[in-house]
Amino acid sequence: MEQATTDQGSSGWRGPGEPAYLDLAGRLAAGDETALAGCHAALGPALRRYLGGRVPADLVDDVLQSVLMELWRCRDRLDPARGLEAWAFTIARRRAVDHLRACPPPTVPLAHAERACHGEDTAERVAREQDVRRALAALPAPQREAIGLAYFGDLTQREIAGRLGAPLGTVKARTARGLHRLSTLLDA
User: Where is the RNA polymerase sigma factor 70 region 4 type domain (predicted)?
Assistant: First the structure.
């Protein structure tokens, strides 16, 4: 547990067995409002990290706030001897699940689903790939090779120059000229 500073000064706790930590839990259970600020200072960063892995980033602060509100609202159920941290994380897990249930599931527009089912995009994609292959075949070999290594080999211009044993400027020129020629061939 991180060290935290509350309105009461430096608490210095590092875990649930520390006297200052037990004191914070006892003060919260007794209804001391400054203890809630202490809980936020002590548990807030860890709860935020925990929630960050469970809810969308834009909901983390909202869920954390609801956790702290519930800590205060249900403080009469807290047994300081059993541990404030475990209780807070249990509440955090439950509030994260509640927030996720309240969010509508992501949807796919019907038009996209129909195209995926009927394969219209697939046929168009295959036809386009054939056009690109034909256009690539019409390029001079040095341009075709530079473009192939860049796009299909996923190499940088510098890596292509090293592989081909050509100057970097030459590789850049071949790629640029080849892409311009491809654009012209595909638009025709």
Answer: 130-182
